[in-house]
Amino acid sequence: MTLRKHERFPSGVLKNERDLVVYLPPGYEEQPERRFPVLYLHDGQNLFDGATAFVPGMDWRVGETADHMIGSGAVEPLIIVGIYNVGKQRIHEYTPTRVPKLGGGRANRYAKFLIGELKTFVDQEYRTLGDFEHTGLGGSSLGGLVSLYVGLKYPKVFGRLAALSPSVWWNQRVMHRYAATLQPEPRPRIWLDIGTGEGAQILRDVENFRDVLLKKGWQPGRDLQYERVEGGEHNEAAWGRRVGAVLQFLFPSRDSNV
After folding, report:
1. What's the pLDDT tens digit per position in 13-27?
2. What is the DSSP letter of 146?
3. CA atoms within 13 A on the CB side of 117
4. 197, pLDDT greater than 90
5. Cα angle at 159 between 146 and 41, to 5 degrees?
6. DSSP assignment of 79-107, as one string?
7. What DSSP character marks residue 207?
8. What does the alpha-carbon distance between residue 189 and residue 25 come to, in Å, rounded to a whole number?
9. pLDDT at residue 53, rounded to an integer
């Protein structure tokens, strides 16, 4: 597994800095002419290393899973960028609207950081395929919420979205209303999931959001994969178990039958 860390990457838009972890696929160094798709994932400290994870020892094991899925021929070799959250600012950056008591509402600024600063840097620093068809955005919980919000707002930048247990309950389901007003062109390919162990209301909210997407023309199995995970809980271990399937849906190998 090849990981590169960029510490204290600065943002002029957000006026803060954060670490980045970049996963390079097998063969990256050996194929200097080749360019690769990119998946950007929020909450980067939870993805690759149990020592930095929110719950010590419980990370998503993204690197091991990606190595395995690429090595088995199921997933196209891709670059994965883990974007660290900035602690207390996470709830503000990952939410599209402000809520009394909780705060929030800086997702538009965070989107400008992602597109204008972070993606620009990654496209310059690494051999990427930078068009929307080869660029994904994903996360869990509030990270899933902001992935849906930014991806649906900027479909010409992010063509593949992963929303694991997304917090679509935020601000009285503002994401449902937002998605219902949109007709994104091109329409992003979306992975959406929720665990039955996360609570009945959260489960309903995510299934209702899926129904909004279906009404807008997304087609199950084609550009929408919805998974109701029996017994799935709201934690890093549960999300880590879904990484392989997420990668296979969003970035299937051209030789696989997905």
Report:
1. 999 999 999 999 999
2. H
3. 18
4. yes
5. 45
6. EEEEE---GGGHHHHT-SS-BTTTB---H
7. H
8. 22
9. 85
